[in-house]
Amino acid sequence: MRMAPVATNPLDLIGNTPIVLLEGPSEAAGCEIWGKCEFLNPGASVKDRAALGIIRDAEERGALKPGGTVVEGTAGNTGIGIALVANALGYKTVIVMPDNQASEKYATLRALGAKLVLVKPTKFKDPNHFVHTSRRIAEERDGAVWANQFDNQANRRIHEATTAPEIWEQMEGRVDGFTCAVGTGGTLAGVGLGLKAKDNDIRIALTDPHGAALYEYYAHGELKSEGSSAAEGIGQGRITGNLEGAPIDTQFRISDEEGLHWVAELLREEGLCLGLSSGINVAGAIALGKQLKADGRDNPRVATILCDTGFRYLSTIYNREWLEAKGLPVFGWL
């Protein structure tokens, strides 16, 4: 058994997550599907990386001073990451969220000492959208900085500098494809840029849920959405600052039902308890693997992101009543 690395600073626990070969998805795709275990970050999600990158960038620019406050609008996971990093560095945190997210996220943020502001879910063009509300709070508060995770490219830069080289090294330079869904675009753009710098033939794919507009944009050049998704933290209707210039080669649209199928399979067969965004990512990775095979790649190897822990969604996707109310399939054991 390999010894775990030793950290001399709690923030060093962010990143350097394991990558695991997923047997069921690999069998379904007819090639190797690998999952980067971002749920093993201290805040239990991939968003810890963005939180660290954004806060360190604000410090380096002189925008964030000792004792200052970090303000952000988020579906939850970035807020949790920011609260943890801010606590470790002596900053305060104000998090703005729509009031329709999993209750576990609200409870976690309050437990971490963040000030939580809840707003009604609305379209981005509405000035009361959680992103615009968080910007106003930051502007009105002395000593505060706005994290601006959607358009702040410090988000994607940390994935380019850390997540991409980790995947490359862990897969011994044998990577044929990478895919994940988009919330801010930081993970897909940053990993895509980092992997393309290693090998431009690596195929980078967007995996989009229903209700988001990016699938149509990358397929046909038009921001257009159809349907809806219950997945939290993914799905985007605009080209964010992090997506500008992202090297996206192809795109897939994945339903909640298909994503939940893989959430169930990975829990029942492989012991991984994950959120819906991870299931959607895995379904997209399978589609990418099949596409690469059809295009003549011999035993392609595809990586994706296992975004966060399923324990954050006990009141939603692991709850029979919630699933039934949404018209979604219920896991047999519930």
UniProtKB/TrEMBL annotation:
CDD domains: CBS_like
InterPro entries membership: Cys_Synth/Cystath_Beta-Synth, P-phosphate_BS, TrpB-like_PALP, TrpB-like_PALP_sf
Occurrences of domain Tryptophan synthase beta chain-like PALP (ranges): 12-308
SUPFAM superfamilies linked to this entry: Tryptophan synthase beta subunit-like PLP-dependent enzymes (SSF53686)
Keywords: Pyridoxal phosphate
Cofactor(s) in the UniProt record: pyridoxal 5'-phosphate
Origin superkingdom: Bacteria
UniProt name for this protein: Cysteine synthase A
Source organism per UniProt: Blastomonas marina
